[in-house]
Design goal:
mainly alpha; 2 domains; two-stranded antiparallel sheet; 11 helices
Length: about 190
């Protein structure tokens, strides 16, 4: 009886997963500079593509790198845009901030960008509409609010505190609305 049960258990046990023929540390690859990722003939994506049956994985890795690099460049454009806005160069800031939009936005970045651009254009109704879209985003499963070093807080929805400051201090220069304590702190209840 026990032998029959053991045989049945072995027949229904899931098969061990086959080892991945194309293992790659995607995070490490995404952190490589462009030359190291693309031009190193024995590294980057090329080292993966040279392995048997790994060309598809290498192609996916290139796609992921392109998406990741675009997001990095978008963030640099955003930060330059913020500095331009601090200087009162709103048209230049708006153009740069438009380059930071994410094609597959799941975290509300585009709503944040829309709100900031509306602020810079002096369009209060568009600012408030973008704020409402951002505030309505459902919290992703597993997202946890965090306190990071330097007093930086990550809350869901991300950047809502910044957008609220822009609404609270609408009409003031960006530098003040973004950073002045009276703009960043919600009014006392």
């Amino acid at each position: 009886m026990i032998a029959a049960l053991l045989a049945l258990a072995l027949q229904t046990a899931p098969a061990a997963a086959a080892p991945d023929p194309c293992p790659v540390d995607t995070r490490a690859m995404l952190d490589l500079g462009l030359n190291a990722f693309d031009q190193d003939m024995n590294g980057g994506w090329r080292a993966l593509a040279q392995r048997p049956a790994c060309e598809a994985r290498a192609a996916d890795l290139i796609r992921d790198y392109r998406d990741f690099a675009r997001q990095r460049m978008g963030l640099l454009a955003w930060h330059e845009g913020q500095l331009r806005a601090n200087l009162g160069q709103n048209e230049a800031a708006i153009a740069l901030m438009g380059q930071s939009r994410h094609p597959d936005d799941g975290d509300g970045w585009n709503f944040y960008a829309d709100a900031t651009v509306a602020f810079l254009r002096g369009d209060r109704s568009a600012l408030v509409a973008a704020r409402e879209r951002l505030a309505a985003l459902p919290r992703p499963e597993g997202f946890r609010d965090q306190e990071l070093p330097g007093g930086y807080r990550v809350r869901w929805p991300m950047n809502l505190d910044v957008v609220d400051a822009l609404v609270r201090c609408f009409g003031r220069p960006y530098r003040e609305a973004y950073g002045a304590p009276e703009c960043r702190r919600p009014p006392a209840q």
